[in-house]
Every structure is written in C-alpha cells, then in structure tokens.
Amino acid sequence: MDALLLQILNGLDKGSAYALIALGLTLIFGTLGVVNFAHGALFMIGAFCAVTLQRILNLSFETIDETQKDFLGNPLKVKTPYVESWFGPDLGSSIIDWSVPLAILFAIPVMLFVGYAMERGLIKHFYKRPHADQILVTFGLAIVLQEVVKYFFGANPIQTPEPDMLRGSVDLGVAVGFQANAIIYPIWRLVYFFFSVAIIGGIFSFLQFTTFGMVVRAGMADRETVGLLGINIDRRFTIMFGVAASVAGLAGVMYGPLNPPNYHMGMDFLVLSFVVVVVGGMGSLPGAVLAGFLLGILESFASTTWATTTIPGINQIIIYLVAIIILLTRPRGLMGRKGVMED
Amino acid sequence: MGILEVKNVNKNFGGLKALSEVNLSVRENTVHAIIGPNGAGKSTLLNCLVGKLIPDTGSVMFDGQSVLGRSPYEINQMGISRVFQTPEIFGDLTVMENMLIPIFARRDGAFRMHAFESVANEREIIEQAEHVLEDMNMADKRGMHAASMSRGDKRRLEIGMCLSQEPRLLLLDEPTAGMARADTNNTIDLLKQIKQDRDITIAIIEHDMHVVFSLADRITVLAQGTPLVEDDPQNIKGNPKVREAYLGESA
Amino acid sequence: MLGLDKKDATLLIVVAVLTLCAPFILNPFPTDSAMAQFNAGYPDLMQRFIIFGIFAIGYNILFGLTGYLSFGHAAFLGVGSYSAVWIFKLFSYNVLPAIGLSVVVAAIFSLFIGFVSLRRSGIYFSILTLAFAQMSFALAYSVLSNPKFNLTNGETGLQVYADDPQWFHRDSLPDLPHLFGLSMRSTYTLDVGAWSFDFNAGYYLCAVIMMVVFYLAIRIFRSPFGMMLRAVKSNQQRMNYTGLNTRPYTLAAFVISGMYAGLAGGLMAAMDPLAGAERMQWTASGEVVLMTILGGTGTLIGPILGAGFIKYFENIFSKINDTVLHEWFALLPDGIEDFMVFIVHPFIGKGWHLTLGLLFMLVVIFLPGGLVEGGQRLSRLLKRRGTKAKPEDSEHRPEEKPHVAE
C-alpha cells in the first residue's frame, strides 16, 4: 500500500510537467488550430529564464580584501554579488538562494513576449496552411530555438538549485498513518506538484469564469461562428498563445531543480507531451491534464526495480505502448470530442 | 420491385430523430427526386445509402443486396456513384487523370498494386476517358489542373467521373446548389442527355423546383425525417399536404 | 527506353552520368589549393550523398505522393543497419546478403508500423509514427541491449568482434565488408596534375543501387499505382466514393518507402560495419523530411537534390572555423571583418544545426516546392525576360499542370 502510494507520488512531478505542456499544446491547438512542435522549446526557454536570472543575480564585482591573505601572502580578491552589496549580505544571499521561484516573475513577461512574437511573426501566417506545413515550420523553429540556447549556454546541463529551505525531504507516510520512513518525498517535488495544480486551476477558472475565457471556449468549439459575432477572435487567440507559452515557460522554470536544464530538454518533453495530448483527446483540456498525470504515474510504476527487472527498459517505452493501444482502441483519446482533427 | 429499396429506416443523433420509418423505392431507369425543406433528413438519408452512416434500424437493399455495414468504396463497387453538393474532384490532378481514376477503379477493383505498369500504356482506358470527356464537352480541358476550373466545369467533371464508371445508380446531392441560372440550365440539359443516352437510374436530392420538375419521373417528399408522399410530378404539384409542408413555406 | 518516356529517360541518363562521374565533378579544385576545402569528392562523403539520396527517394514515395507526413522513417533505416551488421557478425562480410536482409527486415517492420499508424490520418498519423520511432529508439538504445538478450549493443553500437562466428568467412577474404572479395574500402586514386580523384568500390556499389531504385521510383510515379497515391493526397473522400480502398494503397506506399529506408540503412552498414541507435532518433527522421522538402516534395529529382545539398553543406559548414572566416573576410577593413566573423560564427562549425533549422523554416515559408520549384521560378523569370517582346501573353492561356517530374 505504501509502496503503491510512493509510486503514485513519484509520478506526480513528471506528470505535472506533461500536464502543463500538454495543456498549453491543447490550448494552442484548440484555439488556433495549429500543431505547435515548438512548444517543447518554450518549456526549455522557461527553464533557461531561471538560469539567466540566476546568472544575473550572481553578477559580482571584485574587491581586494586586505584583511585576508591567500597562501602566497597576497591580499585576497573577494567576489561580491551586486545584489548582496545593494540589499546587504543577508537579504542579498537569500535573494540569490530563491532565484528559481523569483524567476517566475522574470519568466512571465519574457514568455508572454516570446509567445506574442512567435504568434504574430510566424504562426499567424500558417493558420490556413496544411497541418503538415505547420508541423514542419514549428519543427524548424524548435531546432533554431534550441540551437540558440545551446550557443549561449553551452551543451551541458546547468544546475538551478531550489532554495535552501525547500531542499531535503519530508516523511509523508507518518502524516497519513504509515510507519516512519515509509514514504520519504522530496519537498521540491511537492512544491512542483502544487504549483502545477495551481496553474491548471488558474487556467480552468480563467476559461470558466471570465468573459474572455468564455469567448475563447466558444472559439474552440466553433471558430467561424464566434468570428461572425463580430468579436475580434484573432487578438484573443494571440493572447491565448502568450498564455500557453507562459504556462509552458513556468513549467520549465520550476522544473530546473528536479532536473538540471539542458538545451534539448524541450524536444525530450515535446514528443511525450504530444503523446499525452493524443491520449487525452485532441482538443480536450481536461483530457490533457488527466492523461498527463496518468502517464506520469504509469511511467513511475514502470520504473520500479520489479518492472525493470521483469522487462528491462520498460520505463522508456511504456508511454508509447499505452499511447498506441489507446489510439487504436479509442481513436479520439480518453476525452476527445467528435469532429476534432478527423477527416 | 425497385433497384433501390429502403425499408423502415430510422436514424437518431443523440435525442434528435433525423429519420423515422423512411420507405423509398427507386425503380430502374427512372429519375427519382427526393425533396423536402431544410432539415428534412435528405442528406442523412443519402449518407445512409452510400455507407457514410449506418441506420439504427431498417434495411437498404440495392439490386437485392444489403448495403448496410459496407464501406463507401464497397458500395461504389456494387454500382452506386455519388455526386456531391460541392464538387469532390482530385484538385491536384489533371482533368484527364481525374477521368482515368474511376475507370481504373471499375476495371481493377478497390485495390491493385500495378506499380510497374505505365499509365501511358493503358490505351483502352485512355480511350474510354477521352470518350467521356468528349461527351462532357471537356476534351479541350484534358491537360488542365482540375482545381483551376470554374465551379460549373468541376461539377461537369464530377458527373463525368461518375458516369465513366457506368454505375447502375447515380446519386446526385443538390447538383445545382449555388449555381447561376445559366449553369443550372446547362446541368439540367446534361442530365437530360444522360438520361436519354444511357440505361441509368438517377436519384436526385434537390432544392430547386425548376430542376426537379424538369427531370423527375417520380418524387418523394420528406418532411421532418418522414416521407410525406411519393408520387408522380403532376400529382405532387397539386398535393395540399406538400404545399403546406414545403411549397407553401418556400412561396 | 526501359518503358520510360523520353523526358524520364533523359532524367535517368542525366542522373546516371552525374553519379558515375561524381568523383570528377565533386573535386573541381586542385588538392593543394585554398579552395580544396570545397571539394566533396572523397569516398565517405560521396557515399553519404547516395545513401541519403536513396533514403529521400523512398521517403518521397510516401510523403510526396500520398501526403502522409511520417516522422518515423529513421527507425527503418536503423533496423536496416542492425540487420546488416548481424549478417556480418553471423555469416560473412559479403554485402549482398546483408543488404538483402536489411530490405526484408525493414519491409516487415514497416508493414507492422504502417498497418497500425495508417489507421489514422493527418496529424494523428504523424504523431503515431513519431511515437513508434521514439519507441524503436528506446528499444534499440536500452531495452534490447541487456546481458540476457543483447540485440543492439546499446550505446556502444552494434559492431563485428573478433570472436563473432562469421561462418562463411574465409581468410582469403578481406576483413571488412566486401562484394565477393572486392573490399568496399578499396579506392583507386587517379592523379592528374594538381588534381586527384578517388574511385571507391563502395561508392560505385551505392551508385549502381541508387540508379536501380531511382528507375523503380520513376516507374512507380508513372504507374496507375502512383496516380492513385497522388489521388489519395488530393482527395480521400473522392477516392472512397470512386470505389477505391485507400488503406492498402497508403500501406503499400509506406512499406515501399520503408524498404528504401532499410536499403539505405543496409548500405550505411555495408560502407562502415557499425549500427547505432542514434540513427533512429526522430531528429534523423526530421532530416529526411527536410531533404525531401528542400529538394521538392513529389518531384522525382527533388529528394536527390535535397539530400546532396544538405549533406554537402553539412560537411562544408562543419569544417569552417573562425580562422577560415577571417581568411574569407580578410579583404574587409578590420572592424568590419571582425563583425562579419562575429555574425557568421554561430552558423558554422557546430552551429550547423542552427543553419539547418533556419533553412527548414525558410524553405517551408517561402519555397514550399523546394529547389525544384525555385529552379522553375527562375527559369520562368528568365524566359519571360526573353519573350517580353512577343505580343502573345502566355498567361491568358489555360494553365497546364506541370508534369510531375519537373
């Protein structure tokens, strides 16, 4: 029982990331009718927003400290981050320590801008072109974005640690009545899970309770009709693209501490997220979220020692296997609507 | 006994009754028109005949064989060809190629892996295609990109493609929808010519009464998913029930 | 000739002549000159031109004719390579059985994947093939490489070891892939003055095979079957209502293109007896898509052009470094020279992928018909210039559809 729960919990962090990316993909697909292969790159850019902020905060100046000597007896050069000199050493160092959560504030405008630029500059011209062209051009864009990041940040993963306070693990098992040490769970994974739930909740209530969201939902159902009502649907869709880009970006920002960001993390997640979207049902937001978590948890179960010794490497193919089976038995996915992306 | 027998067909979409207890009998070598106001179920009925939809209950027999549960291509191979409301042609191909494909389909069946023969060597099929093109007055357009033609020409081509298969039953779905008067008259003339020249049964769904009364030998009026009446054209004109349900509405 | 009309026969002959003379054509610069870096006439690169050409020709039969965008064809290439290396390991280094088996295995594999993927069309199909390709990659990279059952040798890649059985191997035969004793690596170098030309056995084997499969591709394009495939791309609804079952047609096209990919993979292993999982990654599938589109989707010659173009520039771009750039821009004033080097730097050397990505976008946006369309536009432009004086305006005549092979 506790082992079962542990595996479910272990699946939550990847599941959250899948769900967030898949949610963005679905929003874009549902509203703009565009298949965005560059969505994984947005996730990656988000993660590198955190890297960038961390670097900015660590910008330092050198002073020569006469009181300290190095082993040759020369005065020691000391690096002091500007932040520490401005806010004092205590506040300054904790600002640096909290760079990942702070990067959320930094990433939102960046991602909105990136999303806006992408939609207005490129995607807009592909609404009326075949899906194959959309796939191809965004595939090219994904390569470009990832190579640009590689050019500036190098090919190696970069550590973006979580704040000191949120490091380590908690014993969740005790809280629900299991023995001590039965379920030890890293704090940041919990943070990531709740963060994703908050974002998902935010998006859903935004779509559910605002007029803007209502129009977008109507547009997802029938674009032409809404266009006929004289509502400027295009502008709203541009904003939606920005929102979807931000969701992917934020998912990336917070994912850094779980797995150090590298330039190809976007592609790795993209393929799986597409599978998630298809399993959830093309165009269905709840489907995307549900499938994201389900597949994340499934992957976690397939990663147990028992599973990997029975069928070596099962953890790497389980998602694809499930996706293929689901697509063949339920072509519309778990919660897909009729008429979306059908011939 | 007609060539096409529809018996007690029902079709629901969710709670909506699209067709209820539809009976229809199309006699061989006649033009049978199916008319009715919008939402009467004409298109649903047509889709049930060609395998796009499967009725909930009832039977559809073509030439003594059931068509239910067969896919569109199998039903076509049985001898039913369909002309769509907006012309469905192979836009990326030339007019000649458009005409060749149905003839190949008739000769070779639903699939044949003739990967190393050359189209250019299929003299017989090319001759047949040229013949149909001449019948359609389109011989001069044979090298044209089909998508670049006018709507009237596309319609003509589509009818030609269906005829080249020498179907036993030709289904026409509002063949003159969205056409100018002159084009409509041309299409009527073309269909009259076809009726005269060939042993063919035609079932036509139409809105335009001018078209219906110029062509039809027999008319079925559908209203709210049920056939109201089936009769000869002259009787339909005077039928008060029809006037009320259909003609009255459009007048 | 060979059942082709005059135009196609000319195309085939031109391609044949170009491939056979490639060692000359691709080495136009003297060996010691500064321009020698633009030479492409060495065996390894020429083999790659041909092998990827075959891969793209096959891919074009699926994507170009039916419009089904597969993101999984690299898997068939990889499967072909693995099969060929297994033949080397178990039986002998003779390339013929190895290539034969790689085609057969790829056919079986693509029949299975195609059967499943083709139940859906459009974007679902693309994602299904993508999922299959990633799954095959994972299978090759880790699942099928464990002590109990090692089919792929994982990260290291499958290769021939000294203790492999090689039942039919004789000491008199070369210890490398060979064709009845003729080693694929054997190269005759012809020195003419300052020039030097390499004639490599492996290259000519690939070239002959490519001409055969190119000929077959032309036949497919001109056959009723090829016409049906184009009809699938154009209007599936009309296909169905014309009594044609689209699925066997698309499946046949899928399997044929899978066999071409397997052949390319087998040849790759025959040139260099090694098979690694990275060949199967979806980015590798993306590359063949790019070759096809860049050359000209649905045209006969396009995929070969695209493959050659990409492999040539990949090679050149990877070789250029800052020193070379400084030489190029040496004539410019110093400041501008540095600036130019700074601008160009991200796109060269390891930045080739960036260039590739940009190229991908530019082609899809501005030149969906690829190089072939570019060439046509250019020649039309030139022709119009030339005929401007004539009174008759060609645009008022009904538009004739361009022949597929142009």
Shape of chain C: globular
Largest interface here, residues on each chain?
A-C, 40 and 45 residues
Give the overall pLDDT of chain C as a whole number: 87
Placed side by side, the strands forming the largest sheet of chain C appear as: 1-2
Radius of gyration of chain A: 22 Å
Uncertain parts of chain A: none
Question: What is this structure's SSE topology?
Answer:
The complex is a heterotrimer of chains A (343), B (251) and C (406).
Chain A: H1 2-32, H2 39-57, E1 60-69, E2 75-81, H3 82-87, H4 89-97, H5 99-121, H6 131-153, E3 169-171, H7 172-175, E4 184-186, H8 187-209, H9 211-221, H10 223-228, H11 233-255, H12 265-280, H13 285-302, H14 305-310, H15 314-329
Antiparallel strand pairs in A: 1-2, 3-4
Chain B: E1 4-13, E2 16-26, E3 31-35, H1 42-50, E4 57-62, E5 65-66, H2 72-78, E6 80-83, H3 95-108, H4 123-135, H5 151-164, E7 169-173, H6 181-197, E8 201-205, H7 209-215, E9 218-223, E10 226-231, H8 233-238, H9 240-250
Parallel strand pairs in B: 3-8, 3-9, 6-7, 7-8
Antiparallel strand pairs in B: 1-2, 1-4, 4-5, 9-10
Helix pairs in contact in B: 3-4, 3-5, 4-5
Chain C: H1 6-20, H2 22-25, H3 43-66, H4 73-90, H5 95-117, H6 122-143, E1 145-146, E2 149-150, E3 158-159, E4 178-179, E5 182-183, E6 187-192, E7 195-200, H7 201-222, H8 224-234, H9 236-240, H10 246-271, E8 274-275, H11 282-295, H12 302-319, H13 322-328, H14 334-344, H15 352-366, H16 370-387
Antiparallel strand pairs in C: 1-2, 3-8, 4-5, 6-7
